[in-house]
């Protein structure tokens, strides 16, 4: 397990490259909430969006996740703990006004980045009744 990459995986890098290509700027491997020792893979601070790129095996993907036969109880416990921690992280972020976005490693990076870009753009839109961001010049 110690040899498994926990950051900068090929899927994560591909998603980040695509987000950058779409013109989005972000922080990498940051803790969205102080006091919570969990890092998001990609963080959009002003929009309060935290993106997690989850491995199909490690996080129990409903499509590709498998339960190993060798040392089965250990692995089932490990994966279920990961899922419980993911749920707890999502709840903590939501209660603090953040949106947690989960991307599975089997998702195509272009599709995942498009979904993330749409979410970030929607959360960046000014609310009704707010002041305009630019002021026009009157002749």
From TrEMBL:
Matching InterPro entries: DNA_mismatch_endonuc_vsr, Restrct_endonuc-II-like
Residues passing through the membrane, by range: none
One function term, GO molecular function aspect: hydrolase activity
GO biological process, one term: mismatch repair
Keywords: DNA damage, DNA repair, Endonuclease, Hydrolase, Nuclease
Pfam families in the record: Vsr
NCBIfam families: vsr
Membership in a protein family: Belongs to the Vsr family.
Entry protein name: Very short patch repair endonuclease
Organism expressing this protein natively: Amycolatopsis suaedae
């Amino acid at each position: 397990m110690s040899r498994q990459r926990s950051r900068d995986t090929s899927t994560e890098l591909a998603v980040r490259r695509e987000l950058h290509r779409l013109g989005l700027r972000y922080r990498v491997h940051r803790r969205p909430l102080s006091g919570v020792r969990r890092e998001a893979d990609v963080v959009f601070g002003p929009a309060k969006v935290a993106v997690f790129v989850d491995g199909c095996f490690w996080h129990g993907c409903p499509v590709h996740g498998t339960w190993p036969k060798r040392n089965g109880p250990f692995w089932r416990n490990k994966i279920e703990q990961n899922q419980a921690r993911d749920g707890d992280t999502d709840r903590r972020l939501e209660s603090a006004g953040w949106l947690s976005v989960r991307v599975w490693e089997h998702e195509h990076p272009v599709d995942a980045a498009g979904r993330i870009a749409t979410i970030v753009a929607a959360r960046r839109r000014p609310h009704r009744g707010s002041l305009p961001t630019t002021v026009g010049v009157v002749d």
